[in-house]
Amino acid sequence: MANDWLELRQHAETGIETIKAHFEGHAFDPHWHDSYLVGITLSGTQQFHCRRERHRSQPGDAFLLEPGEIHDGDAPVEGGFTYLTFYLDEHWLTRTLQGLYNSTPGSYTLHFAQTLTREPQLVRAIGDTFASLHNDEMKIVQQSTMDNL
Q: How far is CA 101 from CA 10, 12, 34, 65, 147, in A?
């Protein structure tokens, strides 16, 4: 649609892609990603199907999808929706977690218990991490926000 827009950036060091976008009407067809997808709905209502449920994400909601989870996207109300999101590669995430803790299990899989949440600390951590990467803040700020996430 004419009012849709997208800002895509890729963090040079980690390869993490950050996206800030606005959609009206139909946003995207069913698809999946090879990475973990985390984001926040900033305005409007974002509607999507995932895990055999229809979700309606409102401003301040965090959405969390695991690699391979099929999802779509629509704006069911006038004015569309705006969101920010980034993709965390599974192998990068495993290496990062091993670097943060003295011991980690030899094999594990990160699982999101919920697709949508309003947990304030998580929403803030996602927003801070997105801003530091998308706006190419100083490396120490980027590392701090990613560690906090």
A: 26, 24, 25, 24, 11
In angstroms, rounded to a whole number, what is the distance separating the alpha carbons of residues 11 and 14? 6
pLDDT tens by residue, 25-34: 999 999 999 9
> Is the full-model pTM beyond 0.85?
yes
pLDDT digits (tens, 9 = 90+) for 73-118: 999 999 999 999 999 888 777 777 776 666 666 666 778 999 999 9
Q: Chain centroid to CA 35: how far?
A: 10
Distance of alpha carbon 72 from alpha carbon 60, whole angstroms: 20
> Taking a C-beta distance cutoff of 8 angstroms, is the pair 39, 82 a contact?
no
Characterize 4-14 residue by residue with b for buried, 16 or more Cβ atoms within 10 angstroms of its Cβ, and e for exposed.
Answer: eeeeeeebeeb
